[in-house]
Automatic annotation (TrEMBL):
Annotated organism of origin: Alistipes dispar
UniProt-listed PROSITE patterns: SRP54
Similarity remark: Belongs to the GTP-binding SRP family. SRP54 subfamily.
Any one GO BP annotation for this protein: SRP-dependent cotranslational protein targeting to membrane
UniProt xrefs under SUPFAM superfamilies: P-loop containing nucleoside triphosphate hydrolases, Signal peptide-binding domain
Name of the molecule in the record: Signal recognition particle protein
Binding site for GTP: 103-110, 186-190, 244-247
Membrane-spanning parts: none
GO molecular function: 7S RNA binding; GTP binding; GTPase activity
Subunit structure: Part of the signal recognition particle protein translocation system, which is composed of SRP and FtsY.
Amino acid sequence: NLTDKLERSFKILKGEGRITEINVAETLKEIRRALIDADVNYKVAKTFTDEVKQKALGQDVLKAVKPGQMMTKIVRDSLAELMGGTASDIRLDGTPAVVLIAGLQGSGKTTFSGKLASFIKSRKGRQVLLVAGDIYRPAAIDQLKVLGSQIGVEVYTEEGNRNPVEIAENAIRYARQKAFNVVIVDTAGRLAVDEAMMQEITAIKAAVKPSETLFVVDAMTGQDAVNTAREFNDRLDFDGVVLTKLDGDTRGGAAISIRSVVDKPLKFISNGEKMDALQVFHPERMADRILGMGDVVSLVERAQEQFDEEEARRLKKKLVKNQFNFNDFIAQIQQIKKMGNLKDLASMIPGMGKMLKNVDIPDDVFKQTEAIISSMTPAEREHPEIINARRRERIAKGSGTTMADVNRLMKQFEDTRKMMKAVAGGNMKMPRIPGRR
Ligand code: GDP
Ligand code: MG
């Protein structure tokens, strides 16, 4: 994995007093190898390391930082630059603004269409219409309908029509009539790039004149992703790239190669099957992720966004007074669930990604806990100290669990209470964010 390899190559520099021609050469060789192993095109990796070398040798080593840290910063900044420097927003011009989704079958177009609709609806407050343009796979229309109903977005379909260009045009007309201001057109893909698919997608593009054409590509396909991106770009001249399936093992390599081969910005990354598993692509954060610093900034932002500050203050007060009870406990679980997939969250913490690689955190990890708490009476939830053995037995029966399960939860609750009291009593400071200036 790229992160491990880069970590190792930085170790070579550790303890060295200065960045010299010799230790830079060693390190850069390792970095180049690591990049190539992560599916970065050879030429891209070579150009990249050559540039890093020029920057590194030209720098006076600051007294305060170790050469390894300095190299990390140079590599990080250069990586970010290679991936576009700054985040680029999605352009939504026109009435309605049309977003066209293209890519191979199975790349994640339909899933992403749903996520993007939800994102635009909630973050930008626009009226979004989804269009089912994949008429070849019988289940494709239903799939989009299911997603649409999950996120509360209308899906435009024409079950009998076999002409996707016509469907897209009709959908836009419909959107105008019904005052939708963003139309997302999901399209069909094939297993490999072929002429029929390219003709269809270019015809749709010519007909609907999208404000944004996004190319969706599965990050797990490695070097193939780069070739597919090139072929689509040659025909379609798309505006941005969406990298999907970046959950699990991080494959930053594709992001780097695609950007340098097609010279189009990466706009979103998709990291899960759930509708909220979508992130705006930030080159600097991706660079951090590749370098193993973890995407701490995203994590903090996401946590802040979801966590009601008022609620946090109220909790803190209760914790200090040792009044934290099961109602607060369940509220906390709700907060955590709102923040999305636990594994995604944990993998953003530096060092955790590696640890969690082979660990399975089920999505319903809280199910039993919630069942037990709902079997408590209001008084028990409010005053956990009254829960004696007889009550525990009743709670176990009511929640379909065992005494041992209830006891375990009570113990967990006590531990949480103690730990949180200690944290709240001290100074609740934001953790320092590595790699941020
Ligand atoms: P399409 O053929 O391009 O429309 O692809 P779909 O959206 O139907 O996705 C193909 C499969 O990949 C489905 O099983 C999705 O649930 C899954 N999928 C899509 N995006 C992601 C992602 O970001 N992470 C993971 N793990 N699975 C994804
Ligand atoms: Mg699809």
